[in-house]
Write a structure and sequence with these properties.
The complex is a heteropentamer, with two copies of chain A, one copy of chain B, one copy of chain C and one copy of chain D.
Chain B lengths: L2 H37 L3 H16 L2 H16 L1 E3 L1 H27 L2 H9 L4 H31 L11 H12 L2 H32 L9 H5 L8
Helix pairs in contact in B: 1-2, 1-4, 1-7, 2-4, 3-4, 4-6, 5-6, 6-8, 7-8
Chain C lengths: L1 E3 L9 H8 L1 E6 L7 E2 L5 E2 L1 H12 L4 E6 L5 H6 L5 E7 L2 H4 L2 E3 L4 E2 L2 E6 L10 H5 L5 E4 L3 H9 L6 E4 L2 H9 L5 E5 H10 L5 E3 L6 E2 L2 E2 L3 E7 L3 H17 L1 H6 L14 H6 L4
Parallel strand pairs in C: 2-5, 2-6, 10-11, 10-12
Antiparallel strand pairs in C: 3-4, 6-16, 7-16, 8-16, 9-12, 9-13, 14-15
Chain D lengths: L4 H40 L4 H16 L2 H11 L9 H27 L2 H9 L4 H30 L12 H12 L3 H29 L6
The chains are: A alpha/beta, B mainly alpha, C alpha/beta, D mainly alpha.
The complex binds adenosine-5'-triphosphate (2 copies) and magnesium ion (2 copies).
C-alpha cells in the first residue's frame, strides 16, 4: 500500500481535484469565550473532492466539520453548500438568518460520522440504519431495510442486523455508524477522527471500509484524521491547520514528502514519530 | 394584622429557623455517622448503618414526631423538650437521607484516586482523610442543599404537635382574622423566600468548594428557572 | 432537656412549684370564646380569663400560653408540656380517667353551624342519621365525634377537622354540611368573621341512649395534682357566689343561663354513653 | 412503663382502613406526578422563555414550600374559588403536584444524562425534533430515570401522614382518633408507625426489583 | 533520535541487563470470572533493569503492573520484591498471607504512574508532590518541598507550584504525576501507558522527561507502552505478551528488527502501520 496518492486518487474522481466551489467557507470566524478558534477563514472544496484536515490538537479542525453539520454556529461569515447558504437564506436579494426549515433542507445533503460512533443504544443495528431514511427521507420500511442490509453487508456486518450496539466491538460499531451515514445518500460525508477511539487492529478494519467507499463513489468527503497513511491513500488534497488558519494546502504527495512550511514539517515529524 | 399577631408569626419564624438550623447540624452528624458506618469493613457497624437508614427513610418524620411526643412520655416516662423532640425527629429523618448522600459521594470518588493513594503508600485512614473525603464533601454539597430545603419544608410538620412554628403562627392568624386564603398565601411566599435564602447560601458554599477542585457549578434556583440546555435544540 | 414526670407527694405540689417559678403554662386549643388569641395577639377568652383570675388569687401572676390541637391537650398535659388545660374542656367520664377536672364553670347547649339559608334543612344530629347525603363536621378530639357516632351517624359521613377555624372553612368549602359545636363557640367565632355566609341552627341538648350530654366545661390538671384542684374549686366557688365569675365571662357572650352548680364528681360518674 | 396490648391489637383493623386510603392517595398521586412531571420537564426545556421561565418559577416554588401548607391551601382555599374536589382527590392532587416537581427533575437528569452525541447524531441524520424525542432521547432517558422514580413512590407514601391536616382519615388521623376515644395514644401510633414502615419496606423491595428489570441502560 | 537502542541503554545501567531476580513473578495465575487473564506466569526483572511490556489489548499487561502495585490480587502464585514476598510473609519458615503492615512495607519501595494521571484535584501541584513524602515517609515539610521543587523543575513545571491540577494541560498533569511518583524515592517505578491519554505533541514532552530520568538514574522500571520508539530508546528488554503469556522476550533491537514469533511480527506491523 505504498502507491503514491496521485495515482490512488485517480480512479473515479479525476475531475474532483478541480475545485468548483461546491462547499465554500467565506470569512468564517468563531470564538469560544476569549478563545479565538477560527479567524476570518476562507476555503472551498470541490464537488466529489476528498479533503483531509490535519493539524495539531485545538487548531479548529473539528470545529470546521461541526459548523458544516450545523452543530456549532459561526460567529460571522457565510458557508455555502451548492447553491444554498447554510445559515442564511436569500430573501429579496438580501442574506438573512435562515429559518429552521431552510437549515434542515441544506443539512439534508450532509451527514457526519463521529469519533464516538454515537449509535442509538436503544435500537438494534438494522433500525439504527433505517430510522432516518424512513422518517427523514420518507422511504418505505421495506425499501429502507433492503438498502440497509446492502450497506451493512458492504461493511461486513450482514450478520449483525439484530444485535444491539452494546453487543458490538468498537470497530463494528464504527462500521455501523458509517453504514448509517451512507444510508442517507448524502452528497457530503464528514468524518471526525473516526478511528482514534479504536485500537490499531480495529482501526485498520474501519479505514479499509472507508477506502473502499472513497474509491467506489464520488461522494464529497471531509475527514479529520491522524492516520496519515489513510490521508495519503484516499485524499485529493490535504489542508494543514494551525491556530485556526490553513497554513498549507496541497495534494498529499506534496505535503507529506515536501512540506513548504516549517510548522507542517515539525507537526508531521511528531506524528510520524509517535509509534 | 395587629402587632401582636405579627409577633406570633415572627416567633414562629424563629422556631422554624431554629428547627432548620439545629436539625441540619444534628442531621449532618447522623448522616456522616451512618454513611461512613455503611462503608465500614465492620459487619456490625454496616448493619447498624443500614438499619438506621432503612428505618428512618421508611418513616415519615411526622410519625417519628408523634412517637417522641406521645409515646416516649407515656411509655418510658421521659419527656423531651418539644423543640428538642422536633429537632431530633427531623434530624433523624434527614440524617437517613444524608447518609445515602455521604455514602454515594464517597463511593463516587474515582477509583483512580484511591489507587493513586495506594501507589503512594498512604494508610487507609490517610486515604479517607486526605484524598477521599475532601473530594467527596464537594460532591455532597448539592445534595445537602436539597436536603436542607427538605428539612425546611418538614419543619411545618411540627405544627401538628404543639410547636409554634411559622405554620402554627399562621394558623393563629387565620383563626383570629378568618382570612384563610390570605394567610396561607403569605405563608407560601414566606417559605419560598426562606428557601431562596438557604439555596443562595448553599450555592455560595458549593461554588467555593467546587472551585477548589476546578469544577463548574450548576445554576442556582433563580438561574434554574431560566435554565434551558443547549441540547434541546 | 428532659422534664421529670414522676413528680409526687400525695396530692401533688404543683401550686408550690408554680409559685416559685412565678408562671403557669396554660394549654388551650385556640377556640372562641373559651381560649383564643385575639386580633391583638393576646391570649383571652372565657376560660383563659377565669383561669388567670383564679391563678392570680392563688399567687401566680404570669401566664404562658401553650397552643395545641384540641385532641393533643390531654396527652400534652400528661406529657408535662403544660400545667393546666384552660380551654373550656367538657367534663366526660372518659376524660376523667385521664385527667383531674375542677368543677365546671359553665354549661352550654349545642348548635349546628350551617351554610346560609340551611339548604339541606338540617336541625339536629338525628337529621344526619336520616339523610345519607349529609356530612357532619366535628373537631378532632372533641366529644362531638363520639356524640355523632353514638347517635348513629356513620363514620363515612363524619369529617374530623383539626381545629375550629378549619371547621368554619370546611363548611364554607362544602367539606361538611354542618359543623357541630356549642352555640357559645360558634356564635363567638362567627362574630370574628363578619359577613361570612354561615348561620347557626337552633340550640339543642344531645341525648344519647336517654342520657343528656351536657356541655359543662372546666379546667384540667394531671391526675396526681389533687391539691391544686381543691384550691381551684375553692376560689371558683367563691367567685360564683360573689357574681364575679359572671362579670368576667359576660364579655365573651356568656349569660346567667350558662352558669351551673354541677360538680366534677357528678359529671364524671354519669353513665357512660 | 404502661402498655395496653389489647388496644394495640384492636387498633390494627381500623388502621388498615387508613392504610388503604393512604395507598389510594399514593397511587393516584403518583400517576399524576409521573405525567405532570414529564410535562414540567419538557416545558422547562422549551426554547420560548415565556414558557420555560414561568413554568420554572412555579416548579421551583412548589418544590421549596411545604406540602403541608399546600394541602391546607388546596383543601380550604380552592373551594372558595368554586373548585370542588373530593377530599381524597385533594390529597392525591396535592401529593401529585408536589411530587411532579421532584419527578420533573428526575426526568431532566435522565434527559441530560443522554449523551450530547446522541443529539448530534440525530441532527447529523436530520431527524425532526419530534422523532428525535420519541425514538432517541426519551427511550434512553426514561430507563435512566427509573431507579429514582421508584424512590419517589416511597417518598410520596411516606408523606401521606400529612394528609391528617385535610381530614383524610389515613392512618395517623385514625390513630389520633382512637387516641381521643380511648385516651391511649402510644399503642395506635406505634401500630401506625409499624404499618407505615412495613409498607415502605415492601415498596422499596418492589422498587429494587423494578430497578433491576427496567433500570439498566444499554451502554452505547 | 534514531540512534540504536543498544547504545541508548548503555549509559548507566550496563549491569542491569543481567537479571538478578530483583522482582520475581512465580507461577502467577489470575482470572476475572470465567476470563483467565494470566495463567501460571513466571518471569523476573533485574535490579535497575528497564523492561517494556508490549502486546495486544487485553493480553494482561496492565494486570501485571497492578499486581505489583497491590491493586489487583493474584489468585495463586507468589511475587517477590528483593528479599520480601509481596502478598505473603514468612512465619516460622512458612509462607502465610501477609498482614496490612507487611504489604505496606514492601509496597513502600514501589510506585506507579497511571494513564489517567490521578492527581489529587483538591491539592495544588506542590502539595500533590509533598503530601506522601511528609505523611508516609515522615519527611519534614521543608525538606519535602525542596525536593518537590527540584523534581518539578526537572519536569519543566517549576512555575506551576501553586496551580490546581484542573488548571494544567494533560501533558503537564502527567508530568506532575511523574514528579509525584519520583518524590517517593521508589526503587521500582511502574508506568502504564502514561502517554496514551495525550495528543502526540504532549506525549512527546512526557516521553522526553521519562527518557531523561531513565538515563540519569538506576531505578528499576516496568513500562506498558504503545510508543515503540520509546520502548526501543530506553528499555533493556521488551516482553511481548499475548493472551496472558510472555511469547517473546528480548532486547529491543532484536524484537523490533528481527522478531522470532509470527504473532509478534503481525502485532508490530499493525502498530507501526497505524500512523
Ligand atoms: N464547546 C466549546 N466550548 C469552548 N471551547 C471549545 C468548544 N469546542 C471547541 N473549543 C475550543 O476550540 C478550539 C478548537 O477545537 P477543535 O475541537 O476544533 O480542535 P481540533 O483541531 O479538532 O483538535 P483535536 O485534534 O484535539 O480534536 C480548542 O481550543 C477547543 O478548546
Ligand atoms: N477488574 C476487572 N474485572 C474483570 N475483568 C478485568 C478486570 N481488569 C481486567 N480485566 C480483564 O482482564 C484482561 C486483561 O486486562 P489488562 O487490563 O491487563 O489488559 P492490557 O494488556 O493492559 O490491555 P490494554 O492494552 O487494552 O490496556 C482483559 O480481558 C480485561 O477485560
Ligand atoms: Mg477534533
Ligand atoms: Mg492496559
Amino acid at each position: 500500500m505504498t502507491e503514491p496518492s496521485a495515482a490512488a486518487a485517480g480512479s473515479p474522481g479525476e475531475k474532483a481535484t478541480t475545485d468548483d466551489g461546491f462547499i465554500v467557507f467565506d470569512q468564517i470566524s468563531k470564538r469560544f469565550g476569549k478563545n479565538v478558534v477560527l479567524d476570518d477563514l476562507s476555503f472551498s472544496v470541490g464537488s466529489g473532492e476528498r479533503v483531509t484536515l490535519i493539524g495539531p490538537s485545538g487548531s479548529g479542525k473539528t470545529t470546521i466539520l461541526r459548523m458544516l453539520m450545523t452543530l456549532t454556529k459561526p460567529d460571522s461569515g457565510t458557508i455555502r453548500v451548492g447553491e444554498d447558504y447554510l445559515y442564511h437564506e436569500e430573501r429579496n436579494g438580501e442574506l438573512v438568518k435562515a429559518g429552521e426549515q431552510h437549515v434542515r433542507k441544506v443539512r439534508g445533503r450532509i451527514t457526519m460520522v463521529f469519533q464516538q460512533y454515537n449509535l442509538f443504544p436503544n435500537m438494534r443495528v438494522l433500525r439504527n440504519v433505517t430510522e432516518a431514511p424512513v422518517h427523514v427521507l420518507g422511504r418505505s420500511q421495506d425499501e429502507a431495510e433492503e438498502r440497509a442490509k446492502e450497506l451493512l453487508d458492504m461493511v461486513g456486518l450482514g450478520d449483525k442486523l439484530r444485535a444491539y450496539p452494546s453487543q458490538l466491538s468498537g470497530g463494528q460499531q464504527q462500521r455501523v455508524a458509517i453504514a448509517r451515514a451512507l444510508a442517507m445518500d448524502p452528497d457530503i460525508l464528514l468524518l471526525d477522527e473516526v478511528t482514534s477511539a479504536l485500537d490499531p487492529e480495529l482501526a485498520a478494519e474501519v479505514l479499509d471500509v472507508l477506502r473502499d467507499i472513497a474509491k467506489s463513489s464520488d461522494i464529497t468527503m471531509l475527514c479529520v484524521t491522524h492516520a496519515m497513511k489513510f490521508a495519503r491513500d484516499v485524499s485529493h488534497r490535504v489542508l494543514m491547520f494551525d491556530q485556526g488558519k490553513i497554513i498549507e494546502a496541497a495534494p498529499p504527495a506534496e505535503i507529506f514528502d515536501d512540506p513548504k512550511q516549517e510548522r507542517t514539517r515539525t507537526f508531521l515529524e511528531s506524528v510520524l514519530d509517535e509509534t | 394584622m395587629s402587632a401582636g399577631l405579627w409577633n406570633y408569626m415572627f416567633e414562629g419564624l424563629l422556631v422554624t429557623l431554629q428547627l432548620t438550623i439545629f436539625g441540619a447540624i444534628l442531621g449532618l452528624v447522623f448522616a456522616f455517622a451512618a454513611g461512613l458506618a455503611r462503608l465500614s469493613g465492620n459487619k456490625l457497624l454496616r448493619g447498624m448503618g443500614f438499619a438506621y437508614t432503612e428505618a428512618f427513610r421508611g418513616l415519615s418524620a411526622l410519625v417519628v414526631l408523634f412517637w417522641l411526643i406521645f409515646v416516649l412520655p407515656t411509655v418510658f416516662g421521659v419527656q423531651l423538650a418539644p423543640l428538642f423532640a422536633g429537632v431530633l425527629a427531623l434530624s433523624l429523618n434527614i440524617g437517613a437521607y444524608g447518609a445515602e448522600v455521604v455514602r454515594g459521594a464517597v463511593r463516587a470518588v474515582p477509583q483512580g484516586q484511591i489507587e493513586a493513594a495506594i501507589a503512594l503508600n498512604f494508610t487507609p485512614w490517610q486515604r479517607m482523610r486526605k484524598v477521599i473525603l475532601p473530594q467527596a464533601v464537594v460532591a455532597m454539597i448539592p445534595s445537602f442543599s436539597n436536603n436542607l430545603i427538605e428539612l425546611l419544608k418538614a419543619t411545618a410538620l411540627v405544627s401538628v404537635v404543639f410547636l409554634s412554628d411559622l405554620t402554627f403562627g399562621a394558623q393563629l392568624v387565620r383563626a383570629s382574622t378568618g382570612n384563610t386564603a390570605g394567610t396561607f398565601g403569605l405563608l407560601l411566599v414566606a417559605y419560598g423566600l426562606i428557601a431562596l435564602v438557604f439555596t443562595t447560601l448553599m450555592r455560595l458554599l458549593e461554588r467555593r468548594a467546587a472551585a477548589s477542585l476546578g469544577r463548574t457549578v450548576p445554576p442556582g434556583m433563580i438561574a434554574r428557572i431560566f435554565r434551558r440546555t443547549e441540547a434541546s435544540a | 432537656s428532659r422534664v421529670d414526670l414522676e413528680a409526687t407527694t400525695e396530692g401533688g405540689s404543683l401550686l408550690d412549684e408554680l409559685r416559685s417559678r412565678g408562671n403557669v403554662r396554660m394549654g388551650f386549643a385556640n377556640e372562641r370564646p373559651f381560649a383564643y388569641i385575639d386580633s391583638e395577639g393576646n391570649l383571652t377568652g372565657q376560660a383563659s380569663e377565669v383561669g388567670k383570675t383564679i391563678f392570680r388569687r392563688l399567687g401566680v401572676e404570669e401566664f404562658v400560653p401553650k397552643l395545641a390541637d384540641f385532641s393533643s391537650l390531654i396527652p400534652g398535659l400528661n406529657a408535662g408540656l403544660f400545667d393546666v388545660i384552660a380551654a373550656g374542656m367538657y367534663i366526660t367520664p372518659a376524660r376523667c380517667e385521664q385527667i383531674r377536672f375542677t368543677n365546671p364553670d359553665y354549661n352550654a347547649p349545642y348548635n349546628l353551624l350551617l351554610p346560609e339559608g340551611n339548604p339541606k334543612g338540617l336541625g339536629t344530629v338525628e337529621d344526619f342519621v336520616r339523610r345519607d347525603d349529609a356530612v357532619i363536621g366535628v373537631i378532632v378530639g372533641g366529644v362531638e365525634q363520639g356524640i355523632a357516632r353514638d347517635i348513629g351517624v356513620p363514620d363515612s359521613r363524619i369529617v374530623v377537622f383539626p381545629d375550629q377555624p378549619s371547621g368554619f372553612d370546611g363548611v364554607l368549602a362544602g367539606r361538611a354540611d354542618a359543623f357541630l359545636l356549642t352555640g357559645l363557640s360558634l356564635r363567638s367565632a362567627l362574630e370574628a368573621r363578619p359577613g361570612t355566609p354561615l348561620e347557626l341552627g337552633p340550640p339543642f341538648v344531645a341525648v344519647v341512649d336517654g342520657v343528656e350530654q351536657h356541655g359543662a366545661g372546666a379546667f384540667g390538671f394531671r391526675q396526681d395534682q389533687g391539691n391544686i384542684v381543691n384550691d381551684f374549686n375553692r376560689e371558683l366557688a367563691d367567685m360564683k357566689s360573689s357574681g364575679e365569675l359572671l362579670e368576667i365571662v359576660e364579655p365573651f357572650g356568656f349569660t346567667e343561663a350558662e352558669m351551673t352548680d354541677l360538680t366534677a364528681d357528678e359529671l364524671c360518674s354519669a353513665p357512660v354513653s | 412503663m404502661n402498655w395496653d396490648w389489647q388496644i394495640f391489637w384492636d387498633s390494627f383493623p381500623r388502621l388498615l382502613d387508613g392504610l388503604v386510603i393512604a395507598l389510594q392517595a399514593t397511587v393516584v398521586g403518583y400517576l399524576i406526578a409521573l405525567v405532570l412531571g414529564l410535562v414540567f420537564a419538557l416545558l422547562r426545556r422549551s426554547r420560548l422563555v415565556w414558557v420555560s421561565a414561568p413554568v420554572g418559577l412555579v416548579v421551583e416554588f412548589i418544590r421549596s414550600t411545604p406540602l403541608l401548607v399546600q394541602l391546607f391551601f388546596l383543601f380550604y382555599v380552592l373551594p372558595q374559588f368554586d373548585v370542588h374536589l373530593s377530599t381524597l382527590m385533594t390529597g392525591a392532587i396535592g401529593l401529585g403536584v408536589h411530587y411532579a416537581t421532584y419527578i420533573s427533575e428526575v426526568y431532566r437528569a435522565g434527559i441530560e444524562g443522554v449523551p450530547q452525541g446522541q443529539w448530534e447524531a440525530a441532527k447529523a441524520l436530520n431527524l425532526p425534533a419530534r422523532r428525535t424525542w420519541t425514538s432517541v432521547i426519551l427511550p434512553q432517558a426514561i430507563p435512566r430515570s427509573a431507579p429514582a422514580l421508584g424512590n419517589y413512590v416511597i417518598a410520596m407514601f411516606k408523606d401521606t401522614p400529612q394528609l391528617i391536616v385535610i381530614t383524610l382519615p389515613e392512618m395517623l388521623t385514625t390513630a389520633q382518633g382512637i387516641g381521643s376515644e380511648t385516651f391511649r395514644y402510644p399503642e395506635p401510633i406505634t401500630v401506625a408507625g409499624i404499618l407505615y414502615l412495613a409498607t415502605a419496606l415492601v415498596m422499596s423491595w418492589i422498587a429494587r426489583i423494578f430497578e433491576r428489570r427496567f433500570g439498566t441502560v444499554r451502554a452505547a
